């Protein structure tokens, strides 16, 4: 249909008005598209513009972008990370590093974890001596070949249980848990059982150090110091009996030789205690204390006095570093082939091997018995330093009522017969003489 000039002019006007509107509608979705994370405003800026956004009202009929809806459902943690200002990220990361540093545990000296404070062991102790070769009896210290100390560790009395206990006994057992010094009292020794853990220590100078005797220092004030060696460790008392029994052997130069059996000279209870007040490794001390049950005061005689055995006594116990060379004028010490072979955990943690303690590469020459495991190696070399005699001296050394507790238990065990003692050791009195328990040499 032909158009007039007026109609053509009207169509041109309508076309001009529709074109900007179309451009406007197509531009709006582009403005609503999701901005890349780098162009987003920091959280602080968004906070400041929050009130402006609240005043804005959506255009009626405007279609919302689906991506914007997904952003609203986005987890808050991710949103914070994406919106966090770079400056805030640096600040937060530095705080995190500081927090991590605070959480990292402080480095402790390896010896701190090795040290066991308090009573580390208790049990029964037996003292033996053996006459020299070709002597059937000993009549003085000159006739003694070896002096032994046998340790039979036991659990504490309050931790032991027996099927024969009565209700009253159970109550007493509960009381022991809070009694002073109860951790030093050993459980009763089973009789007739040969399977028991034991250590055989060979004591140098054929006796124990005497706290009442000077050691040759200025003014006689220096305490006596004796050596000891862990000769054997086992769990069968029958083998111990064989080792202490009489022996006959052949030699190339002197032919057949005979050595008499060892004699039992004393029996009692012992405790090994590490002082609990030590703040530094150099202040640590290990005390070995014992109280006899046999012989009693009436039968205590020349044998015990000569061997340095007291009714109650104590000494400081130290362990020699097997990596340290022999010391002293006489170069005292075992050859390397016979020394204890401690693992690196002990050599580093206790003695400080590698320069951790002391000035030498092997660490300290001597250390306290920081753990009982130090005594469970054959060839371990020990120092016995005289400390105190008597029941009060024993209490002073062990502390916390332990000395008094040992005194009380040994009064009870002192009522046991000689036969009971031999049954404890699963030994035959015809093979191991008991005469010295009467105070006389044999």
Helix/strand layout:
Layout: H1 5-31, H2 43-48, H3 50-55, H4 66-72, H5 76-83, H6 86-103, H7 110-114, E1 118-131, E2 144-154, H8 167-176, E3 198-203, E4 225-234, H9 237-244, E5 247-251, E6 255-259, E7 263-274, E8 286-294, H10 302-306, E9 312-320, H11 344-349, E10 366-368, E11 381-389, H12 390-398, H13 402-413, H14 418-424
Antiparallel strand pairs: 1-2, 1-7, 2-3, 3-4, 4-11, 5-6, 7-8, 8-9, 9-10, 9-11
Characterise this structure.
With 442 residues, the chain is an alpha+beta fold. The chain has 14 helices and eleven strands. An eight-stranded antiparallel barrel has the order 1-2-3-4-11-9-8-7. α12 (390-398) packs across α13 (402-413).
Shape call: globular
| Count of β-strands | 11
Please identify the structural class as seen in this structure.
alpha+beta
**In percent, how helical is the residue content?**
25-40%
Instruction: Kindly report the spatial arrangement of strands forming the biggest sheet.
Output: 1-2-3-4-11-9-8-7
| Tally of individual helices | 14
Mean pLDDT: 79
**Portion in beta strands:** 15-25%
């Amino acid at each position: 249909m032909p158009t007039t000039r007026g109609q053509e002019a009207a169509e041109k006007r309508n076309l001009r008005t529709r074109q900007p509107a179309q451009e406007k509608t197509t531009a709006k979705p582009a403005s609503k598209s999701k901005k890349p994370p780098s162009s987003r405003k920091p959280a602080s800026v968004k906070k400041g513009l929050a009130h402006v956004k609240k005043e804005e009202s959506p255009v009626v009929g405007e279609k919302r972008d689906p991506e914007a809806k997904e952003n609203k459902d986005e987890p808050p943690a991710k949103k914070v990370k994406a919106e966090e200002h770079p400056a805030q990220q640096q600040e937060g990361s530095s705080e995190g590093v500081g927090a991590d540093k605070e959480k990292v545990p402080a480095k402790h000296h390896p010896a701190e974890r090795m040290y066991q404070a308090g009573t580390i062991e208790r049990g029964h102790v037996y003292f033996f001596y053996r006459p020299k070769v070709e002597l059937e009896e000993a009549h003085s210290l000159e006739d003694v070949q070896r002096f032994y100390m046998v340790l039979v560790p036991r659990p504490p009395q309050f931790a032991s249980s027996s099927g024969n206990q009565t209700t009253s006994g159970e109550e007493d057992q509960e009381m022991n848990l809070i009694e002073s010094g109860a951790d030093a009292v050993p459980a009763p020794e089973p009789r007739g059982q040969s399977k028991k853990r034991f250590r055989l220590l060979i004591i140098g100078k054929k006796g124990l150090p005497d706290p009442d005797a000077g050691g040759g220092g200025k003014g006689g004030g220096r305490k006596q110091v004796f050596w000891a060696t862990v000769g054997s460790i086992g769990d069968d008392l029958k083998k111990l009996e064989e080792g202490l029994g009489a022996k006959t052997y052949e030699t190339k130069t002197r032919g057949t030789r005979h050595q008499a059996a060892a004699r039992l000279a004393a029996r009692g209870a012992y405790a090994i205690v590490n002082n609990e007040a030590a703040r530094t490794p150099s202040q640590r001390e290990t005390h070995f204390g014992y109280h006899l049950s046999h012989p009693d005061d009436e039968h205590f005689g020349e044998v015990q006095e000569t061997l340095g055995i007291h009714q109650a006594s104590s000494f400081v116990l130290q362990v020699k570093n097997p990596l340290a060379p022999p010391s002293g004028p006489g170069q005292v010490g075992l050859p390397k082939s016979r020394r204890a072979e401690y693992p690196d955990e002990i050599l580093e943690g206790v003695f400080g091997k590698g320069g951790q303690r002391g000035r030498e590469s092997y660490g300290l020459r001597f250390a306290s018995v920081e753990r009982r495991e130090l005594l469970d190696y054959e060839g371990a070399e020990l120092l016995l330093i005289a400390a105190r005699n008597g029941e009060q001296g024993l209490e002073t050394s062990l502390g916390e009522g332990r000395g008094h507790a040992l005194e009380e238990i040994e009064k009870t065990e002192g009522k046991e017969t000689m036969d009971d003692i031999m049954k404890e050791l699963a030994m035959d009195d015809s093979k191991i003489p008991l005469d010295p328990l009467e105070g006389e040499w044999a």
